[in-house]
Write a structure and sequence with these properties.
Layout (H helix, E strand, L loop, with lengths): L7 E5 L2 E5 L3 H25 L9 H28 L1 H11 L4 H16 L13 H26 L6 H31 L4 H9 L1 E3 H7 L1 H16 L6
Antiparallel strand pairs: 1-2, 2-3
Helix pairs in contact: 1-2, 2-3, 5-6, 6-7, 8-9
Bound molecules: protoporphyrin IX containing FE.
C-alpha cells in the first residue's frame, strides 16, 4: 500500500497511521532514556551504602567517570531535539506550560480511566495529555537542578563554600527522588498498561493509528493533524 506524506503516514492492517514523533524527537527521547538510566545506576553506587563496593577504589573511579560522561549525554539530548526539530521542540515546550479546564477534568478522571477504562469521562487532550505535561514539567525543572547542582559537585569541590556544596548534594538527591517516582509511573504506563500500547511503539516507529490519536489526543488530532491535511489539499486554507 502506498505511503502517504505527513501527517498521515501510511496504513497498518486496515488502520490509518498518523505521524506523532519526528526522528529527532525519538532520538532525543532514547538518548535521554539511556543517559538517565546510566546516571541513575552510577548515582546509586555512590548513594546507597550497600552498593558502596562500586563507589570506592578503581570501580568508584570508573563509576564517577561514567556518571560524568552520561551527564554530557543527558545535557546533549534536549539540544539534539532543539537543533534538529525546533518546531516540535517549541510546540512541546509551549504545550507543557499551557494548562486549562480540560487538564483539571483529565486529572479528576484519570484514575477511573486508567483503572476501570471509563472512556467517556476524559476531556480531549493535546499532543500530550495532562499527566504527560506534568511529567514534562518535572523533567524540565529537575533537568535545570541536575545541571546546576551536578556541575557544582563536578567542578566546585574545594572552591565553593561547603554549605553550597552540601545544598547541591541534597537538591541533586531530591531531584533524583522526584524523577525516579515519575519514571516508574511512566514505565508502567507505556510498557505494561494495556490502553497505552501504542505509546511505546510510537517512540520507535514515530506513528500511531488514527484511532489511538483520536482517543488519546483528540485536540491535537483535530487541530494539528486535520488542519495540516486540509492545507495539503487546499493551500489557500493556510492561516
Ligand atoms: C547534568 C546532569 C548531571 C550531572 C552533571 C551530575 C553530576 C554528579 C556529580 C559530579 C556527582 C558527585 C559524584 C562524586 O561523588 O564524585 C553526582 C552524584 C550523584 N548523582 Fe548526578 N549528575 C547529573 C544527573 C544525575 C541524574 C539524572 C541522576 C539520577 C537520576 C543522578 C544521580 C546522582 C546520585 C544519586 C548521586 C549521589 C549523590 C549523593 O552522594 O548523595 N545524577 N552527580
Amino acid at each position: 500500500m502506498a505511503t502517504i506524506t505527513m501527517p498521515l503516514a501510511g496504513v497498518r492492517g486496515r488502520q490509518v497511521l498518523v505521524v506523532r514523533f519526528t526522528a529527532a524527537e525519538r532520538a532525543a527521547h532514547w538518548v535521554h532514556f539511556v543517559a538517565f538510566s546510566v546516571l541513575l545506576v552510577t548515582g546509586m553506587f555512590i548513594y546507597l551504602p550497600w552498593l558502596h563496593a562500586f563507589a570506592g577504589g578503581a570501580a568508584g573511579e570508573a563509576s564517577r567517570l561514567i556518571h560524568r560522561g552520561a551527564a554530557v549525554l543527558f545535557i546533549a539530548a534536549p539540544l539534539v531535539y532543539l537543533v534538529f526539530s525546533p518546531r516540535e521542540f517549541l510546540y512541546s515546550l509551549k504545550e507543557s506550560f499551557t494548562w486549562g479546564a480540560d487538564d483539571v477534568g483529565w486529572l479528576k478522571n484519570a484514575w477511573g480511566y486508567y483503572s476501570q477504562g471509563k472512556l467517556g469521562t476524559m476531556p480531549p487532550q493535546g499532543k500530550y495529555n495532562s499527566g504527560q505535561k506534568l511529567n514534562a514539567l518535572t523533567q524540565i525543572i529537575s533537568f535545570g537542578l541536575f545541571v546546576i547542582t551536578g556541575l557544582i559537585m563536578w567542578f566546585g569541590k574545594g572552591s565553593v563554600p561547603s554549605n553550597v556544596f552540601l545544598a547541591s548534594v541534597i537538591v541533586h538527591d531530591l531531584a533524583v527522588i522526584a524523577t525516579v517516582l515519575l519514571f516508574m509511573l511512566h514505565l508502567y504506563l507505556v510498557v505494561l498498561h494495556p490502553m497505552m500500547r501504542e505509546s511505546i511503539t510510537s517512540m520507535f516507529e514515530g506513528t500511531v493509528t488514527r484511532a489511538f490519536a483520536e482517543e488519546h489526543h483528540g485536540k491535537w488530532y483535530s487541530e494539528r493533524v486535520l488542519r495540516k491535511r486540509e492545507e495539503e489539499f487546499d493551500p489557500l486554507s493556510k492561516k
